[in-house]
Design goal:
Belongs to the LDH/MDH superfamily. MDH type 1 family. One of its GO terms (molecular function) is L-malate dehydrogenase (NAD+) activity. The protein is of the alpha/beta class and about 350 residues long. It is built from 10 helices and 13 strands. The protein has helices at about 40-50, 65-75, 90-95, 120-135, 150-160, 175-190, 225-235, 240-245, 255-270, 315-340; strands at about 5, 10-15, 30-35, 55-60, 80-85, 100-105, 140-145, 170-175, 200-205, 210, 280-285, 295-300, 305-310. β6 (about 100-105), α4 (about 120-135) and β7 (about 140-145) form a beta-alpha-beta unit. The N and C termini lie far apart (about 45 Å). The chain binds nicotinamide-adenine-dinucleotide (NAD) and (2S)-2-hydroxybutanedioic acid. The site of (2S)-2-hydroxybutanedioic acid has 11 residues, from α8. (2S)-2-hydroxybutanedioic acid binds near residues 109, 147, 177, 241 and 243.
Length: about 350
């Protein structure tokens, strides 16, 4: 397994979480995919079915095809047992005893929409799933893919708070795709394997809130001129929109998201399993900035978030990006919290 060095947040090792590997420790986890029949959910299930840390893969969706997706995946000759759960009456059964619940349930963007335009539809979906997790698996780690991530994490957190089971170390907004994209683009620029690129992406998951910290990239990005750094930053911030436009009404990123989601889930499981030095960026409750939720490198462990590693030194340009992101994050967080308090 190769490792990535992340500078200078805490001079830590940033490991590629998406790997199949055997382990002699617990190796016995239940993972639930909520939204399992969708564009992300299906390939995410495919990847998780191949993960040796997963012994029980529960696929939940409201779509009629859900039992079929479960039947299909269950024919793969890998150890994870697959169960399908369709509709709200089968949700509790899907969620009970979960170690990790990953949520890609909800509608995706079409061209011309912002992620915030999805709020009205997706907010109640995430609220209701969080309420069931609070009741049936209050200790589960929750990884929220559903957009707008910046608002969905505060909603889930408020629901868990109301139920008296909130642990900020267990609720994660999935920003892994931003990290994966940044590494892909930089790998291409530098002419190296993107898997060897270590690049923290901090802030949130939409437009100006996505802050690639290119000054901390290892190896250094081979771009000398500031205008090229700014163009690369913009491309990473707008990469989701690039896919939405290219799919021309057929949805947003699904396959790269499934890859990124499987990587984060694998890292969460490796942390739960007691592996050391497991580090990923994710959007969590935070006191690093004015924004009460913020994404940056995190050390994962047996209880989820073990240690927030911060984001180290930003150069002048990156400080400007952070300044632009904070008001947007504050607005997104308030929207989520206000909804949950209704
Ligand atoms: N965090 C990220 O980086 C990232 C990346 C890509 C997409 N997304 C978001 O992920 C979400 C899903 O995208 P997609 O392309 O898979 O969409 P999709 O429409 O293909 O799939 C969504 C699935 O959710 C299911 N669903 C709807 N309501 C549900 C409910 N109450 N309970 C359970 N399942 C329910 C649908 O039946 C469908 O199968 C969108 O909100 C999208 O914006 C986030
Ligand atoms: O762009 C989207 O709407 C989906 C996702 O957030 C992405 O970044 O691809």
């Amino acid at each position: 397994m190769f490792s990535r060095t992340l500078k200078p947040a805490a001079s830590v090792t940033f490991q590629n979480g998406f790997k199949n590997f055997s382990t002699s420790s617990q190796n016995n986890f239940k993972v639930v995919v909520a939204g399992a029949a969708g564009g992300i959910g299906q390939p995410l299930g495919l990847l998780l079915k191949q993960n040796k840390l997963v012994t029980n893969l529960a696929l939940y969706d409201i779509a009629p095809v859900t039992p079929g997706v479960a039947a299909d995946l269950s024919h793969m000759d890998t150890p994870a047992r697959v169960s399908g759960h369709k509709g709200p009456e089968q949700l509790a059964d899907a969620i009970k005893c979960a170690d990790v619940v990953v949520i890609p349930a909800g509608v995706p963007r079409k061209p011309g929409m912002t992620r915030d335009d999805l709020f009205n539809t997706n907010a109640s979906i995430v609220r209701d799933l969080a309420a069931c997790i609070a009741a049936k698996a209050p200790k589960a780690l929750i990884a929220i893919i559903t957009n707008p991530v910046n608002s969905m994490v505060p909603i889930a957190s408020e629901v868990l708070k109301k139920a008296g089971v909130y642990d900020p170390n267990r609720v994660f907004g999935v920003t892994t795709l931003d990290v994966v994209r940044a590494a892909a683009f930089i790998g291409e620029i530098n002419g190296v394997d993107p898997g060897c690129v270590s690049i923290p992406v901090i802030g949130g998951h939409s437009g100006v809130t996505i802050i690639p910290v290119l000054s901390q990239c290892e190896p250094a990005v081979k771009l000398s001129d500031q205008s090229k750094i700014e163009a690369l930053t913009k491309r990473i911030q707008e990469a989701g929109t690039e896919v939405v436009k290219a799919k021309a009404g057929g949805g947003s990123a699904t396959l790269s998201m499934a890859y990124a989601g499987a990587r984060l889930v694998c890292s969460l499981l490796r942390g739960l399993n007691g592996e050391s030095n497991v580090i990923e960026c994710a959007y969590v409750k935070s006191d690093l900035t004015e924004a009460t939720y913020f994404a940056n490198p995190l050390l994962l462990g047996k209880n989820g978030l073990e240690k927030n590693l911060g984001f180290g030194n930003l150069n002048g340009y990156e400080q400007g990006l952070l300044k632009a992101a904070i008001p947007e994050l504050l607005k997104n967080i308030k929207t989520g919290e206000d909804f949950a308090k209704k």
